Amino acid sequence: MIVNSLSLCYHNKLILAPMVRVGTLPMRLLALDYGADIVYCEELIDLKMLQCKRVVNEVLSTVDFVAPDDRVVFRTCKREQSRVVFQMGGMGAALLSDPDKIEKILSTLVKGTRRPVTCKIRILPSLEDTLSLVKRIERTGIAAITVHGRKREERPQHPVSCEAIKAIAETLSIPVIANGGSHDHIQEYLDIEDFRQATAASSVMVARAAMWNPSIFLKEGLRPLDEVMQKYIQYAVQYDNHYTNTKYCLCQMLREQLESPQGKLLHAAQSSQEICEAFGLGAFYEETTRELDARRAELLARTPEEAGEPAQDTSGVIKMAVKFDRRAYSPQITPKMCLLEWCRREKLAQPIYETVQRPLDRLFCSVVTVAEQKFQSTLWDKSKKLAEQAAAIVCLRSQGLPEGRLSEESLSLHKRKREAPEQDPGGPRAQEPAVSGELCKKPLVALGSGKESPMEGW
Q: Membrane-spanning residues where (predicted)?
């Protein structure tokens, strides 16, 4: 776990635990609002993060880590900058059985980053083995250790071992964070301190009690659940949280009220707007959406100079406003396939596609280079594949070449039917008709060197 701060302290802190599908940005911000000192993100797989691209989202004022499939894997904002902990690694307690690997991972992280590194474990079957493990972990140089006071196979209904956490806290010199008290010990704010004293820990990490009602961190006591859920929904809309995640977290809060009229409306909701309407926030959704749309339009309208980007000369790039509609093409043939086949027939180098993603709205634009000439669609697409197909269409249409459209197949078939009676059935076998999208041998017209940058509006 890498901490997003060089000076984050783990003494006497209230901490939101890492929870799968729960610890996303809206929940973390809500926990901070109610008094949490530190918030952990949901557990993320390191390989997924390595595949992500860091994108500054100017519309939401966030920093997003976006996967190749355009899914936002991690989103953060300035509000939590010095208080969020990024958790990664094996799932659950997977590493407990491999202490050598634990030591190697932690030592590498401590040596490789200037940020404090912490570790979270469960207890082992014997206290002796547990103490041996935590001493070994402490020697790696980590800043703190969180101990969930249950064994790996135990579930929430099993009692948490305050004694084991206390023994660890009395053994180590680094801060020990107690975790696992939601079921037996923590029902309200005052219970958090009681759990800390019972475990002799430096701080307390709260999981399910915070998932059920994040105002558990509030000194003044729990707030009404309706109020808490409305605040959560507002954050979810403001930060464009996916509605399925919003819905899941709200279901965890409602619990036994899922069969209530409001719970049934939530269960039926299939969008963020419908969730808002179920909780009387329809007007808020419309107003926030208008504001975000206006902000997006304002940013899109900026000149390159206003956006802090160099102005690009795109002369010499052949452009058309086209998009690739899969329904208009034969299932077996795409414009990219047609263009590649034509280049092979003409003994040209294969097409080269350069694709970029616009940070503002995460849309894609592609430029294809063929025979030193560049071709680009002026319309941005929602995926890299679609943008490349659009660029191929521009190239093919500008040269009058077939692109594999179904309409081309129909015209080709009609022409063959018209010409069929003229063939001599007794003569040599007629040439097989060309398949849909087969390219004619026509030279490509090169209109420029193609050295200029093609990224208009990027």
A: none
C-beta of residue 403 within 8 angstroms of C-beta of residue 393 = yes
Q: Do 215 and 239 lie in a common domain? A: no
Radius of gyration (Cα) for the chain, nearest Å? 30
Q: What angle do CA 285, 286, 292 make, to 5 degrees?
A: 85
> Which residue type sits at 267?
H
Question: Whole-model pTM?
Answer: 0.70
> Closest by alpha carbon to 238, among 39, 22, 33, 26?
26
DSSP states of 106-156: HHHHHHH-SS-BEEEEEE-SSHHHHHHHHHHHHTTT-SEEEEEEEETT--T
pLDDT per residue over 13-64, tens digit each? 999 999 999 999 999 999 999 999 999 999 888 888 999 988 889 899 999 9
Which neighbouring-strand residues pair with 243? none
Residue 451 is assigned to a structural domain of this protein: no
pLDDT digits (tens, 9 = 90+) for 259-290: 999 999 999 999 999 999 999 999 999 999 99
Statement to judge: residues 214 and 263 lie in one domain: no
Residue 449, in any domain of the structure:
no
Torsion of CA 5, 11, 13, 19, to 10 degrees: 70
Tokens 């027939």 correspond to 345
